[in-house]
Specification:
The complex is a heterodimer of chains A (412) and B (269).
Chain A lengths: L6 H13 L24 E6 L5 H8 L16 E3 L13 H12 L3 H14 L15 H12 L6 E5 L7 H18 L2 E5 L3 H7 L2 E6 L2 E7 H22 L6 E4 L3 E9 L5 E2 L1 E3 L4 E9 L3 E2 L2 E8 L4 E6 L8 E2 L2 E9 L7 E10 L5 E6 L3 E5 L20 E2 L2 E2 L6 H9 L1
Parallel strand pairs in A: 1-4, 1-5, 2-3, 3-4, 10-19
Antiparallel strand pairs in A: 5-6, 7-18, 8-9, 8-11, 11-16, 12-15, 13-14, 13-17, 17-18, 17-19, 20-21
Chain B lengths: L1 H9 L1 H16 L8 H20 L8 H28 L1 H6 L6 H28 L10 H25 L2 H15 L7 H11 L3 H9 L2 H15 L5 H26 L2 H4 L1
Helix pairs in contact in B: 2-6, 3-4, 4-6, 4-7, 4-8, 4-11, 6-7, 7-11, 7-12, 9-10, 11-12
Classes of the chains: A alpha+beta (412), B mainly alpha (269).
């Protein structure tokens, strides 16, 4: 019953059944299989995974929209679905009418809704427009109203599916605070699905990592989020290596070709792994097709999601007057690459003397930064690990002391 | 049965709000607004009256326009709530995919919405009765019961149609054709006593044919509606029985098919 067939295949299959012949079957896709977990009342659970991992299917099963084809889902208490903010908005209705309509759809009794109306309107910052048809709202105003309404439900279990990324930055902050206060004050059970892993890490006590319909890992937020990052970086790396140049973002005038990027270790050998805090050397070799006057080079590193970490220009140092056609190599040495462990990529650019971009490429090479030998404290709480000096009451602390020593000394 | 009803009662607020949405949505930004609800039967009544001028239909003691309007009221209610009911599930796909509440709410809401329009048409009927000087009798108290019957007949079509429509959209394409054919098989343009006379006078299998005619769930109730409102007579049980039996049989089957298919709506829709 759960599948639609065309009339042709329905008739043919019907005929086959009558004749006792095997019926043409469709390949089944199990969006989820072998996923077992339980959530206690008052817990905040994050569900993360790549696209198509089965997150939304899982939420649909939990909220009863679809029944599982096998297995059971048991839920105690009322569920408030936050799946897609403002799904049922009618453009011709005013904000107020939509609040009543969607409130009823979400199962908020009218009495409760009337009591909370001012609250909802105030939170959505729509006091002046509540009697305007929402087709005249900006898209930000609509999602604000949807979020305000959805989070005003009194259900025992809240489901938050990618709704924290609504509105402008200030409103996102407000949404985040509202969810946080729901967690802290009301002690509701909350399920959060998000691609914003840092948010999940911050809000959730426990995280489930789904991969291709299976429960890959389950555990504390920090552990699971880190292993998700590792998984994603592996996948990105795999994608980039698979498709060679096609996934690189390259803009080129054609004057610079055959760009090769190498990451070198201490001894000048090509590598793809450096330790956090070690020197990083990036060498770029390329072929120049026509001579270039006063060229300027940029070399930088970025995360796999294009957050630029480092970057320097050769404009500040002595520049060659002219670079003749042929094979050239530029090298940038970073004395201490103090970025936390992870997978990073190299960016390279060439500009001419008018600062015209001759070549610009991202993700030209990937390298992994591994944990430094000096056992670092909390890598998840920073991106850059810079050398620092400490002092207490104006007295500079000697490097050899560690924090533990000082605390125990103060206690004595 | 009782469980079905209590469940619906639990969701009465939602049904009410959704019905209000349907009505408000249909008439917002429409210059004539709610007048559209009465315009359709009034125009049909006018056309039928003009046609009758050419072909001549014997309407007995009752003036033809009001007789046909009284037939159009239950008919329009049935036709529109059945077709809106069939389209209600697919039309609310965005909600089906996002939120769970019992899916029978959608066809039921469609029927409730059309009942509101029926009540508005009652005002027009009252106006016509004043115009033609027809005084209502106590028999008019049968109307709520007849109304309920029409709603159940609509739901019998709506449930199974809505469920099938999720799988095959052909249903919503075929439905208007089937329903307009059904109107000619119902005593809307002509009064039922013409059919009765024609078929029963034949003798032989004429009475069987008449019973088959009455198995159309709407045939008997249209006549009953005209009787209680215009003629001051009680409904004729013999006329209502065949259609009533069909509805009593179809409705539970239709509902069960709907409930069985319901679980997969979100996947298929």
């Amino acid at each position: 019953m759960g599948q639609v067939q065309s009339l042709k295949s329905a008739v043919l299959n019907g005929a086959r059944r009558l004749l006792g012949k095997p019926v043409e079957k469709r390949a089944r896709l199990h969006a989820l299989s072998d996923v077992t977990f339980s959530v206690n009342s008052g817990e905040v659970i994050g569900i993360i995974g790549q696209n198509g991992a089965g997150k939304s299917t899982l939420l649909k099963l939990i909220s009863g929209i679809t029944p599982p084809s096998r297995g059971t889902v048991s839920v105690e208490g009322s569920i408030a679905p936050l799946i897609e903010v403002g799904a049922g908005f009618i453009p011709d209705f005013t904000g107020r009418e939509n609040i009543y309509l969607n409130g009823a759809i979400l199962g908020i009794p009218k009495r409760v809704l009337e009591r909370k109306l001012d609250d909802i309107v105030a939170f959505a910052e729509l006091e002046d427009f509540i009697d305007t048809p929402i087709k005249r709202y900006s898209s930000g105003m609509q999602v604000r109203l949807g979020f305000a309404l959805a989070t005003s439900m009194d259900a025992d279990i809240l489901i938050v599916d990618e709704v924290l990324a609504v509105g402008d930055l200030a409103f996102q902050r407000k949404c985040f605070d509202r969810i946080e206060s729901l967690i802290r004050q009301s002690g509701k059970t909350i399920l959060i699905v998000s691609h914003n892993i840092r948010q999940v890490e911050r809000l959730c006590g426990r995280v489930l990592l789904l991969d291709q319909g299976r429960l890959l890992q389950e555990g504390s937020a920090a552990t699971i989020c880190d292993s998700f990052y590792a998984l994603m970086n592996k996948k990105i790396r795999h994608n980039i290596e698979q498709s060679a140049n096609s996934s690189q973002r390259v803009i080129s005038s054609g004057e610079v070709t055959d760009v090769q990027v190498q990451v070198l270790d201490r001894d000048g050998l090509s590598t793809d792994q450096v330790q956090s805090g070690d020197p990083l050397r990036i060498r770029v070799t390329f072929t120049l097709r026509s001579s270039l006057n006063k060229p300027e080079f940029h070399i930088g590193t970025h995360t796999t999601d294009f957050f630029y970490l480092t970057g320097s220009s050769s404009a500040l140092v002595e520049r060659p007057d002219v670079l003749l056609p042929g094979r050239h190599a530029v090298q940038q040495d970073i004395a201490m690459y103090s970025i936390v462990p992870g997978t990073y990529a190299v960016r390279f650019a060439v500009l001419d003397k008018f600062r015209r971009v001759v070549y610009h490429g991202e993700t030209l090479a990937l390298f992994t930064v591994s944990q430094s030998l000096r056992e670092s404290l909390q890598d998840e709480l920073r991106i850059v690990d810079l050398p620092v000096n400490w002092s207490i009451d104006g007295r500079l602390l000697n490097k050899s002391f560690d924090l533990q020593d000082i605390v125990s000394r103060e206690v004595q | 049965m009782l469980r079905v009803l209590t469940n619906l009662f639990r969701y009465r607020e939602l049904i009410g709000v959704l019905a209000w949405k349907n009505i408000a949505m249909r008439y917002k930004q429409a210059f004539l607004g709610i007048a559209w609800a009465v315009l359709k039967p009034v125009m049909l009544m006018t056309i039928f009256t003009v046609i009758r001028g050419f072909i001549g239909i014997d309407s007995g003691a009752i003036p033809y326009p009001i007789l046909t309007f009284a037939a159009l009221m239950p008919w329009t209610l049935f036709q529109e709530s059945a077709s809106d009911g069939v389209n209600s599930v697919v039309g609310n796909a965005h909600l089906i995919r996002k939120i769970y509440f019992p899916r029978e709410i959608f066809p039921v809401t469609a029927v409730v919405t059309k009942t509101v329009e029926f009540l508005i048409n009652c005002l027009i009927l009252a106006g016509l009765m004043v115009w033609y000087g027809i005084a209502p009798s106590w028999q008019i108290l049968w109307v709520p019961l007849l109304l309920l019957y029409v709603l159940l007949a609509s739901l019998a079509i709506a449930f199974v149609g809505a469920a099938m429509n999720v799988y095959f959209r052909d249903v919503s394409a075929a439905l208007p054709v089937v329903l307009s054919l059904m109107m000619y098989l119902s005593p809307v343009i002509y009064p039922i006593h013409l059919v009765q006379e024609k078929l029963l006078r034949h003798g032989g299998n004429g009475s069987i044919l008449y019973t088959v005619y009455l198995m159309n769930p709407l045939a008997g109730v249209i006549d009953a509606f005209q009787r209680v409102v215009l003629r001051g007579l009680p409904p004729d049980p013999a006329t209502l029985l065949p259609g009533g039996a069909i509805v009593a049989l179809l409705l539970p089957v239709s509902f069960l098919i709907f409930k069985r298919a319901e679980a997969y709506f979100a996947d298929v829709i």
